């Protein structure tokens, strides 16, 4: 089997020749900048091209084909090349003596400390003081990018080489999580409970913009995308942020409409990236049309590999869950990393429906010896 056949076989809940591997490509399967530098040093790669950041707040990089080949990754992510467009009136970058700041096209303000800063943290939103629909109308919506047609060749080359292909970048965030980046978390959650029609009006417009975004993508990449993703964090460590009923009635119908539009473009599998304890919503996530769940946060409540595989393993693919990145990968010994990786493979792999990747992006505090212990254990145990 080539990589693409391997991934598609697993997504169809069959056992391929070995478990598919995604390190560095899919949504929340990437490397943060400073860990990636460790990886380059480990492999002795000195002539690496200049690092390209693909997600500014989390400081994620596009991993090079050289690194992905060394890791034997089965998935390749398109490097999106947006065409120039008119700048949003919100967009701005500046710095002070101790911090870097920027405001993105959604009016969301971020800050990264200069002293040992690893990420850009959310510090303010544009509609924090919005009281009603009149205030809501003041929001200036971003225009979805169009993409350079010449960038299609990259995915054509990946497809010809036998890799599974993905586009993991999203427009804004999900239908549940974009609102907080515009209104603020407390305001958005109160609106969902007390003024759901204001939320629906916002999500109606977001759906329209997301459809435009995907239409722009497929205008360039039509026929070349195996998997894409939407990001919408529903969970905390202990459970859902809101009730399953609220997600089912207010949020997931928008996902379902969007997925129907995306799948009308071809045989494309949809991934939901949703952190935390989301098991109570998985039946509704499946009903909405999602094929995969990422990052599979096995350390959260009711998210053990045994529970997930037993209850949902026939209906959704677990794209992640290979090892706990909150504790074991960053704080454990190499032997603890090996033990947990082997255990999770043994649980998730049978019957397909599993793409190995850690729980979320690889962070700066992960020792390189732990990452290699995880990778070697996968290589030793990935055959069916």
Overview of this structure, please?
With 384 residues, the protein is an alpha/beta fold. Helices cover 39% and strands 13% of the residues. The strands form 3 sheets. Strands 4-9-10-11-12-13-14 form a 7-stranded parallel beta sheet. Helix 7 crosses helix 8 (196-221), helix 8 (196-221) packs parallel to helix 9 (244-263) and helix 13 (334-348) packs parallel to helix 14.
Question: Major sheet: size, sense and barrel closure?
Answer: 7 strands, parallel
Count of distinct structural domains = 2
Summarize the helix and strand pattern as letters.
HEHEEHEEEEEHHEHHHEHEHEHEHHEH
- End-to-end C-alpha gap: 13 Å
Unreliable spans are none
Look at the helices and sheets and give the structural class: alpha/beta
Strand content: 5-15%
Short précis:
By secondary structure, this protein is α/β, with parallel strands linked by helices. It contains 14 helices and 14 strands.
Topology:
Layout: H1 3-11, E1 31-32, H2 33-43, E2 53-55, E3 60-61, H3 65-71, E4 75-77, E5 92-95, E6 99-103, E7 109-113, E8 121-124, H4 133-136, H5 152-160, E9 164-167, H6 178-183, H7 185-194, H8 196-221, E10 227-231, H9 244-263, E11 269-273, H10 282-287, E12 292-294, H11 305-312, E13 317-319, H12 328-331, H13 334-348, E14 354-355, H14 368-381
Helix pairs in contact: 7-8, 8-9, 13-14
């Amino acid at each position: 089997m080539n990589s693409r056949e391997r991934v598609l076989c697993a997504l169809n809940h069959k056992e391929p020749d070995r478990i598919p591997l995604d390190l560095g490509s899919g949504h929340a399967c990437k490397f943060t900048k400073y860990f990636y530098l460790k990886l380059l040093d480990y492999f002795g790669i000195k002539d690496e091209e200049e690092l390209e950041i693909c997600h500014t707040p989390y400081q994620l990089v596009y991993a090079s084909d050289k690194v992905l080949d060394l890791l034997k990754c089965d998935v390749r992510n398109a490097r999106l090349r947006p065409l120039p467009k008119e700048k949003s009136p919100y967009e701005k970058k500046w710095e002070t003596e101790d911090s870097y700041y920027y405001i993105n096209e959604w009016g969301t303000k971020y800050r990264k400390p200069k002293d040992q800063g690893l990420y850009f943290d959310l510090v303010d939103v544009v509609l924090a003081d919005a009281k009603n629909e009149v205030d809501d109308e003041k929001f200036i919506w971003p225009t979805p990018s169009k993409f350079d047609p010449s960038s299609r060749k990259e995915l054509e080359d990946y497809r010809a080489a036998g890799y599974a292909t993905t586009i993991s970048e999203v427009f804004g965030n999900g239908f549940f999580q974009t609102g907080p980046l515009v209104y603020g978390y407390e305001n958005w959650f109160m609106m969902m409970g007390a003024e759901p029609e204001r939320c629906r009006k916002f999500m109606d417009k977001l759906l329209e913009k997301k459809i435009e975004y995907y239409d722009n993508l497929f205008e360039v990449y039509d026929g070349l995308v195996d998997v894409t993703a939407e990001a919408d964090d529903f969970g905390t460590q202990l459970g859902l942020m809101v009730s399953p009923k609220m997600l089912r009635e207010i949020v997931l119908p928008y996902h379902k409409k969007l997925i129907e539009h995306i799948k009308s473009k071809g045989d494309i599998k949809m991934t939901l990236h949703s952190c935390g304890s989301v098991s109570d919503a998985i039946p509704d996530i499946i009903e909405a049309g999602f094929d995969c769940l990422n990052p599979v946060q096995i350390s959260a409540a009711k998210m053990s590999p045994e529970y997930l595989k037993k209850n949902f393993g026939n209906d959704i693919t677990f794209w992640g869950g290979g090892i706990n990145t909150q504790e074991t990968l960053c704080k454990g010994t190499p032997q603890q990393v090996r033990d947990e990786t082997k255990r999770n493979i043994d649980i998730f792999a049978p019957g397909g429906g599993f793409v190995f990747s850690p729980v979320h992006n690889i962070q700066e505090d992960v020792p390189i010896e732990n990452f290699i212990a995880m990778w070697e254990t996968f290589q030793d145990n990935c055959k069916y």
